[in-house]
Amino acid sequence: MNRMVRNCLHAGAVLLLAVSLRAGQADQADRAEKQRHAQQPVQQQKDQPQKEKDKAAVATALGGRRVDQAAAERGRKIFVPTCGFCHGNDAHGKSGPDLVRSALVLHDNKGDTIGPVIRNGRPDRGMPAFASFSPEQISDISAFLHSRAADVSNRFAYKIGDLITGDPRKGAEFFNGTGHCETCHSPSGDLAHVATKYEPVELQRRMLYPAPNLIDLYLGKPVKPPAPIKVTVHLPSGQEVSGTLDHIDEFSVSLHDSSGWYHSFSRENLKVDVQDPRAAHQALLPKYTDDDMHNVLAYLETLK
Asked: Which domains does the chain have, with CATH numbers?
């Protein structure tokens, strides 16, 4: 009996210890989970400044320093009536120097380098002093000049003006005449509503260089792959091998046929026919006049 009691007590103690350990582990896990959730906002707050720095670094890499646009606009309103007569309203210079590419301006930070020049002037070069300008006004002028420099250097922010300056009637004449565009394209077929699909600048690019836009590729935008170049090789035996062109030069030609097999030939005693859908566009490039390009684009803009 005593042995049975001792065994029961021992078993109970073991069971109690196991339950206690499991409870302790659960409490520990619960405390760890609560601590993790409690620390998460703090970690997010710690990470946020770094994310902002990363965004600033990307913006700087693409377009230089960030510009306070409100300050730049205030600075423009001061600069144009006061300085524009000599430096030009766009700061590119007239009788005075170009400030957009000025090293003094490029190294300026809120007026620390251009401020003394503005206040003291340069009498030996004909620039009067503007001693009454406040530090805030000079800082705003600095922001305006930096915004002008950013507009020039940042190609991603470049704004293209009105391209539609040609005569659509003359463009249609070129399309159906000298350019022989109608042999591959049709205003009621592949070019139907083309002007509603693309902005004028993209339509002009596609007209001159019908290939994927490299900027779109760089930015990861979906692009339609170019039509493959086809080739037919006529062998001395009379056999013909056709497929998608892989490589061609003065000495050899290679292709993949419709089954995927690779073929390579020496061009000696061969006749090679290349069907490049972009060849006609490339042949027109040295023949286009400025008027031709503007007129054809004006005609394409009527296809809406």
From this structure: 69-157 (1.10.760.10), 168-224+283-300 (no CATH), 230-276 (no CATH)
